[in-house]
Predict the structure of AI-2E family transporter.
Amino acid sequence: MALENKIPGKPLDLFIRAGLLGFLVVYCYGIFKPFIGLLLWSVILAVALYPLHAMIARKMGGRQGYAATVLVLAILLSVLVPTTLLAISFADSTIEFVKQVHNGTLQVPAPRDSVATWPLVGVKLHALWEEAHEDIGIVVEKFEPKIGIVTKQVLGYAASAGTAILKFLISLVVAGIWMAYASSGHAAAQAIAKRMAGPEKGDDLVKLSTATIRAVAQGVIGIACIQALLLGAGFILVDIPAAGVLALVVLLIGIMQIPAMLISLPTIIYVFSTNDSTTVAVMFAVYSIVAGSVDNVLKPLILGRGVDAPMPVILLGALGGMATGGIIGLFLGSVMLALGYQLFMAWVYSDNGKEKA
């Protein structure tokens, strides 16, 4: 008996259609995969920057394209130079540190006696620190497998710094295109949301997504980036070692909502103890205190509505994104995980027929 007689026509037809559709989706995904992160980041930038773009467009008589061009060029001029300097500093200091560790030329200062009194780890840490101070080569040889893994990851982050800048530039240009055609893009987003969540909830889904992206991108990541750029520029001007690494740490603790003074205060002490010019040290101290406290001024302005996603969600997104996608994943991961959390919680409360508290 023929195969078509054994299998009913409609199920077979459905199976073939589903197979062809699945093949098309998988194939298109394979082509689109290298650009997913870049396009997602460009959409995030476009949504976060659109209020500023709309204000510029109103002043330019509604010229959306000109407004997008002016905004993109202004951001490039104000952000590109310090970001490039910090990325170069981060890469150079990281590579130099790894070379010194492997060559055994790294100079480790002697530990203070008070380290041995620290609870739980004090005695062992003091002994290891003392051993590293006397001969770093012995410590490197003892922990060579673990150091090899860590240094490989660190070098990967250093190499990704340049790639992250290039991706940021491309994403910013693409975001300018999204903003220039914001009306049609918003209509397309509403149509997709209505198709996914239904006509009644489609608009709410778009509003929730937009509000979450702007809150996290502007109120958390944006402020952390501003602080990292300001303090990083100061670190470079007074020639603090590993300025790029310190700026990245400022960025991380900024996302974690930890005060940047945790990093700026030790650098102030370092400048006062090593710089011959008291005037330079005082100017740097004042600058660092102001730059380290800028979040106290910006947060009330930007975060008037607050960020609904819990900070652990944003932090996990940032760390997980950095582990999987490098520097650019630091920003992308925190926004996307916060957005996913908000959409999931909205679905949970909607399914229970309750309003979110």
About this structure: The CA atoms of residues 234 and 284 lie 7 Å apart. The chain has two domains: 35-180, 184-350. The mean pLDDT is 75. Residues 311-351 form the longest helix (41 residues).
